[in-house]
Amino acid sequence: MVNKIITSVSILFMGCLVQAQTVGEVFKKITTGYSIAQPLQYKTDYKLFKDHKSTKVEENYKGVFYKNAANEVYIKINDTEIINTKKTNIKVSHSENAIVVSNPVDNYFGEADFNKVFELCKLISFKDFKTYWEIVLEPKTYSGLTYSKIVLNVSKTYFIQKQIFYYNTGINFSKDYKGTDVNYPRLEVVYSDYSRKAIPPSVFNTQNYLSFSGQNSIVLAQRFKKYEIIDQRIISNNIK
């Protein structure tokens, strides 16, 4: 459950556009920095706290983000890997021994993401702390988002330094499956070591995980032979 929470917000940081013009300008420059056709890499550190004020870390996961000049993406968060190329999207869950194959995402950091969250979030505050901006957002009523507040720290070079998600839905932290220890957690994500250094092409090679035989047949690489395949491309094609 906790791992899924962390994974689900791994790319949300690019989805918050707000009404104030100065904040809008900041986010437009962030969009440019992340989506420009140049390599980009950075590290992530996810810390989950039991409630909004707790100082004790309940779970801590490390991650990395790699993007090449073709805007193909590799993301790793704890035991989950995501590879998005021009041809396919692959999500590997090593804890569940499962691989999900779906159609590629056209743009992880496009205007569509901004517009969607713009409809769901409102600006609470926008503060200048000299070396970074602090932006506080609040999901609108009936937005469907599971947060009561989102705090973002943005560097003056227009990269996200930190995000804090305050959840408004309870999570059971009990170590005993029969027990109950429901709290409203806080997730802090720190981004560091930004670099434009080129990433080896092998990082984005999907044949490290699987290959395609014909239109619908998927052949897993030897080390993943025991993994379950969930082919969501078929579902998408049926819908069309």
TrEMBL record:
Keywords: Signal. PROSITE patterns: PROKAR_LIPOPROTEIN (PS51257). It comes from the Bacteria. The keyword Signal applies. Residues 1-20 form the signal peptide. This is GLPGLI family protein. The lineage of its organism: Bacteria, Pseudomonadati, Bacteroidota, Flavobacteriia, Flavobacteriales.
